[in-house]
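Sample pair:
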Amino acid sequence: MNRLARKNLLLLGGALILLIANTVIFMPDGQEIFVQERCNTCHRFRGQGGAAGPDLTNVGKRRGALWLTRQIRNAKTHNPDSRMPSYDHLGVLEVCALISYLKS
């Protein structure tokens, strides 16, 4: 590998490390979002929360990230009669944090 290629590879690796570090450092807390968005008023998770909606304790084992994303963004995608409000105002990192929390 020539010197220029090695230098470019190092720069690319450094940029990738910074990107990952920034994502981890600035990843919102899924549990905090769950409470802030009042998900816990309708849903139970790990024995705490409401009973109007389904218990989400094992939802992360039953459903994939894409399904969960669609459900969070607009529950009517899966069930047109759903009473769950749309959370399409949440950013990508917030939705990822919620999904990570539900899968934990």
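The beta strands are 44-45, 48-49.
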